[in-house]
Amino acid sequence: MEQLINDSLKKVETKHHVKILYACEAGSRAYGLSTEKSDYDVRFIYIHPLEWYLSIDEKRDVIEVPFSSALDLHGWDLRKTLRLLRKSNPSLLEWLTSGIVYYEELLVMEHIKNTASELFSPLAYMHHYVSMARGNYKDYLKGSASSMKKLFRVLRPILICKWVEQHVSIAPISFQKLAEEVLPKKMYNGSHHLVKALTEDTALDRGIVEEFQLFVEEELNRLDGVVKSIPSGRKVNSDIKLDTLFVNTLHRVWERG
């Protein structure tokens, strides 16, 4: 599959006349929550030649490759990426922290990742995951039987919020790393059983599920008060910093050829 992914990325570069700066896995595989049926969700950041940006017209800044062979490719232009980075866009930050990287322009991405940390807004970031947890919780409660996958869709954003509360920084993408750091010790072993039940489709003690259901409910009630104490983050000279990063990357990538 990795060869197919690399070949697909090269085809994107040729077809769209772009340079890919970064490509990674997102979604369940990056979270460590994939099953045998999980798709490969490849996300990438790319850059056009200088002339593409010198236009009075707005142009499409997303590349999507039609889904095939359990492979989903989706990419963002660098200018769009930096605009989203300025807002601490959670999806982008998950890409940048993925543990499965297929390609990376190391120097460029080092600057982008450092800038993401410098401009990080804990408040905006937490608001996103609180909203996600609440929305997914409503979905989890629908129907006569709540699925394990739906439980994780609520539990993971809650753990991210707890990470921000404790560390005021971008959370790791790995579910188990999150669980190890922020779950109460008495629940950490239970999280391993939850992951195994999801990824291997094994039976799980109902008592463990109920314990995590109660945890989710308590945390959702608590997080409203927590959000009020979270700092907004530093945004000093963000536009100058991002403009400089954009221009320097253009020169570095295309002058090198």
TrEMBL record:
* A Pfam family reported for this protein in Swiss-Prot or TrEMBL: RlaP
The family database entries (InterPro entries) matched by this protein are listed as: RlaP (IPR018775)
What's the superkingdom here?
Answer: Bacteria
This chain belongs to the protein called Nucleotidyltransferase
